[in-house]
Write a structure and sequence with these properties.
This protein is α/β, with parallel strands linked by helices and about 550 residues long. About 25% of the residues lie in helices and about 15% in strands. It is built from 15 helices and 18 strands. The strands form 4 sheets. The protein has an 8-stranded parallel beta sheet with strand order 11-10-9-5-2-1-13-12. Helix 10 runs parallel beside helix 14. Bound molecules: 1-deoxynojirimycin. It comes from Clostridium pasteurianum DSM 525 = ATCC 6013.
Length: about 550
């Protein structure tokens, strides 16, 4: 099998927000086809497309009711086949989202399963008896607040759901369930799909004795280490690899909450024949207070030293033992420049600085739709948000528990909520940003007249063209894919500096993540005597001059 994904750059599409081709306010597959030439111009190699299957959309498609059918608002199966073909015609690969930790409660398997304790689907999910007092089997919490168990009268039992109660967890202990998953993977791969992004794959194996978590103050239901990395996880991944993945020249990236750079190798060491790379959360969690009852809404200041420590750890631990997935944004994360940078007076410089640091590392870089034009967070009223995560958290934490004030909660929503990344793609300055001629399912970010694709394509110094250049470097320069990694200035709170080295060649990657000018002194020892600029975000790299706000560049040593 070739390792084509090592030189690839992935672009993630969140279909409902990308491009609407028929005016119903939802993005769709034909909309994606319309924009393939735009993506080709950017230069990406792979599109990862978030779930497009039949779904009641309780969690925007991460609740699937038919894995073999395209959701009608997105189009038809024929449209999907057409998209695969059109992408392939342009040498772009298609990776689909495999959501197999759970299904929708409207999936046929669940509808059957809940009918009785002894039907052919009864063990497709986790069903447990209530405790003697009728309460939930244990104190496990859902990721979206509340208990992870929902009572069902028909069976007089509780079923497990790590996400909403409309997303029951599949029982991977049951070999029939595993076979169903492998079959649906083959169904799409035989149609030409080139790989999988695997939703919360680290959670598919459960601790089937379902022990309680140790109590935590202020929390009735807890979500913690037992929600991931269960005892049979790697056995299942090996089986999936044997049964399906090894038969195709494909790419796999598993979403692995709860993983760190130590256990990452278990997933991605090629010798183990499991996955190619995993999506970690370690670096994304640095701005949250750990173990707070207010979960991700308990904000902590951004800390560059911590970010550098975590990402560098992954770089060094996986060098020669696996492969990194490099990302700052996706449909579950806010816009990085609003979250950790400056999205007003240094918006462009800042977007390019984050891109430089990320794309300079070893791994496969992921660009989330809109990141390449510097899209920013939304600042809406509560009722203008759509995400079930926001509304569940509001009810539970603000209204019921009163563990966070309304004011602090809204500040966290503006900073961290998933809908920040889910507002419609901004194509131009026409009404609704050129996303739809109808009513968009969620409000367009009002800054679309200033931030949009049409503007970016007009300006040769745009963020778009900067990404285009970074992608080209990834394709052409082996040092980016193969080179070693060394972090400098580990304790510097503003400067991100590291070096890549390959076959005697050396590149220095530098970013100033502050709004201040920074004297060059601390950086000087690492500057090469003779060098040339590979890429930079201020039009030139200056020797012996202070670094400007959000200045970033890569320089190359000349012998
Ligand atoms: C992770 C997905 O990325 C997220 O959007 C979803 O809500 C959960 N998994 C549940 O499927």
């Amino acid at each position: 099998m070739s390792n084509w994904w090592k030189k690839a750059v992935v672009y993630q599409i969140y279909p409902r927000s990308f491009k609407d081709s028929n005016g119903d306010g939802y993005g769709d597959l034909n909309g994606i086809i319309e924009k393939l030439d735009y993506l080709k111009k950017l230069g990406i190699d792979v599109i990862w497309i978030s779930p497009v299957y039949e779904s009641p959309q309780d969690d925007n498609g991460y609740d699937i009711s038919d894995y073999r059918k395209i959701y009608e608002k997105f189009g038809t199966n024929a449209d999907m086949e057409n998209l695969i073909e059109e992408a392939h015609n342009r040498d772009i690969k298609i990776v689909m989202d495999l959501v197999a930790n759970h299904t929708s409660d409207e999936h046929f398997w669940f509808e059957e399963s809940k009918k009785s304790k002894d039907n052919p689907y009864s063990n497709y999910y986790f069903w447990l008896d209530p405790k003697a007092d009728g309460s939930e089997p244990n104190n496990w919490g859902s990721s979206f607040c509340g208990s992870a168990w929902e009572y069902s009268k028909e069976r007089n039992q509780y079923y497990l759901h790590y996400y909403t109660k409309k997303q029951p967890d599949l029982n991977w202990e049951n070999p029939k369930v595993r076979q169903e998953v492998y079959d649906l993977m083959k169904f799409w791969m035989d149609k030409g799909v080139d790989g999988w992004r695997m939703d919360v794959i680290a959670s598919i194996s459960k601790y089937t004795d379902f022990p309680d978590y140790p109590e935590r103050p202020g929390e009735k239901y807890i979500k913690g280490f037992m929600h991931a990395n269960g005892p049979r996880l790697h056995e299942y991944l090996k089986e999936m690899n044997r049964e399906v993945l090894s038969k195709y020249d494909c790419m796999t990236v598993g979403e692995a909450p709860g993983s760190d750079s130590e256990n990452a190798r278990l997933f991605v060491d090629p010798e183990r024949k499991e996955l190619n790379m995993i999506i970690t959360f370690e670096h994304m969690n640095i701005d949250r207070i750990p173990n707070s009852p207010n979960k991700k809404w308990a904000l902590k200041d951004f800390d560059l030293i911590e970010l550098k420590r975590i990402l560098s750890n992954w770089q060094t631990k996986l060098l020669n033992y696996g492969w990194n997935a490099l990302y700052f944004e996706n449909h579950d994360q806010p816009r990085i420049i609003s979250r950790w940078g400056n999205d007003t007076n240094y918006r462009k410089e800042c977007a390019k600085a984050f891109a430089t640091i990320l794309h300079g590392m070893q791994g496969t870089p992921y660009i989330y739709q809109g990141e390449e034009i510097g899209m920013v967070n939304a600042h809406y009223k509560l009722k203008e948000y759509d995400d079930v995560e926001i509304h569940n958290a509001y009810k539970e934490l603000v209204e019921k528990d009163k563990s966070i004030s309304e004011e602090d909660f809204m500040a966290a929503v503006w900073n961290k909520s998933r809908d920040n990344g889910r507002t419609p793609m901004q194509w131009d300055s026409s009404e609704n940003a050129g996303f739809t001629t109808g009513n968009p399912w969620i409000k367009v970010n009002p800054r679309y007249t200033e931030i949009n694709v049409a503007e970016e394509l007009e300006d040769e110094n745009s963020i778009f063209y900067y990404y285009q250049k970074l992608i080209k470097l990834r394709h052409e320069e082996e040092i980016l894919t193969e080179g070693s990694f060394k972090l400098y200035l580990t304790e510097d709170p503003s400067l991100y500096v590291y070096e890549r080295e390959f076959k005697g060649e050396k590149w220095l990657v530098v970013g100033n993540f502050s709004e201040e000018e920074i004297e060059i002194d601390s950086l000087k020892p690492y500057f090469y005597e003779k060098w040339e600029s590979v890429i930079n975000n201020y039009g030139e790299v200056r020797d012996n001059m202070p670094l400007r706000p959000y200045e970033a560049f890569i320089i190359k040593k000349i012998k």
